[in-house]
Structures are given as structure tokens and as C-alpha cells.
Write a structure and sequence with these properties.
mainly alpha; Hypothetical protein af1432; two-stranded parallel ribbon; 2 strands
Length: 294
Amino acid sequence: MMGDQDAVPSVDHAKLPHWHDRPWDAKAVASQTGAKQMTSISERADALEHDMTVELERKVAAARGIAPIRSPLYVSGQYDPSSERHDLFDALDAGQHFLMGPDPRIAPMPEKPTLMDYFRLRFGYIQHVMQSARLARINGLDEKVQLACLLHDISVTGFINGDHGYWGAMMVEPYVDEEVSWAIRAHQVLRFFPDPSVGYEYPEAYIRFFGEDFVPDAYVREAYERFRDHRYYMTGRLITLNDIYAFDPDVTVELGDFEDLIGRHFRQPEEGLGYDHSPVAHIWRTISMPTRAL
């Protein structure tokens, strides 16, 4: 187990590329080379085109008599969440039935989906978590840490951004070792707090992301005080160490590199993720069928 701080393998940070000093992607690089306005206009145009395409596809599906239903969480901010409008009522007004199964606009899932299927078909930007797991492997860390790094942001890539560590830990809790799920939950909190004992500093990237005056919420600071003395503290801390260094636009990692790791340490239910009647099966079904009405 990685519960003891003196069990931490040494990491030569001088040999690690400082990806936290670099932007997330090539578009951000352009913004630093005089192309900021052009990139911004291009990104806005791409975003607008995407929104228009999604809305058109929704209307086309609705015109066929079956309406995909977006939950209020999807459109909060676009619409006032306390208002009376809802996709359900829009569908009823249009005389349409509700979608009560898979969304035909997105790739179908296998009958008994595996974690690998979700990575391939439902999780978006997975290069970061794969780079994180790869870095943990290069640094010679335990396979539990490698798996925790691979799974630490799956809520961001496929479900919900806010409190992603808590959601991600909940998603995998029935299927992984307790140490892994605890570390996934804790990394969300620990990333905001330096730990000189292992060379972890507050990431410079966070100043760009959140602003110089950003202060973590009170519940985050309180959670940190609870987590810092936990027996699995260092496992969560190792996620943060192999997280912020894992944004390299020049490295491409293949999902297949981790198939054996998943096979050894992720308890894949025979019925398929989402159909095993675990306490979190509904989360996986929601990711599989995100516009199911009820």
C-alpha cells in the first residue's frame, strides 16, 4: 500500500518535462505567438458551428417523433434552471414521444459494455489521463497508482466537471481497490495544496486557469485537513504529481497500452457496466444514454 509517506519512490523532477509551464494544446500555443485574436475567432466559430449542429440534430430527431431529452443540468445557464421550460414540455407541445433508450446520434454501446468501451465511445479527451498513467508507469509507481492516474478525471471526460474527484471515485468504487477510489476522490482537493516533501508546488497553470486571487472553497480546505493525515494520503498525492506534468501535446498514448492494467485491477461486471445493479450502475447508464427522458 502507498499509505506511508516514507514509501514514496524518488522522482527526479529535473528529468520531467514541466508540462504545467506549457499550455494545454496547440491552440493555446498560438495564443502566445501573436495569433491570440485569430485563434479566439476561430474557436468561437467552431463552438458556434458545433452548437448549431447539435441543435439541428436535436430538431431533426424530434421531427421524427422521438425527442431526445436534455436534463436541466445540461442547459442550466443557457436557460434559467428555475424556469418552467423543459425539453419534456417542448416535446409534449410538439406532439412527440420521449426518447427512452440510446440516443441514435451517438455511437451505440455494446450489450455488455466494459470500461474500455466507455473510454472508446463515451469519454472525450482521454489523452491527459492516459499520459498521467504513462508517467506514473515511467516513474516506477505501483499499478494501483497507475490505475488511479488513468481514472482520476473520467468524470470530467465523460460525465460532470464540478467535484469531478468525488463523482469519479463514486463511479469506480465498486470495481477497484479502496485505495484507488479514495485517491481519486482526494486528488481533487490535494491539487490545490503544495507538499514540499515530494516536490509538489501549486501549479502555475492554475493561476492561468483560475486567476491569481483564486482561493479554494471552504469545503475544499476542510477536506484537505481531513485528507492530509489519511493512510492513503500519498496515493492521492501521487496522482497530483503525475497529473500536472501530463499535458504534453507532443505525446500520443494508445488506450490499448492499459488494457492489461485494467484487466488486473478493475473488476469488470459480467453483466456490463451499468447493468450489474451496483449502487453506481445508474451513473454508467446515464453516460451510456445521456438523453434518455426518464
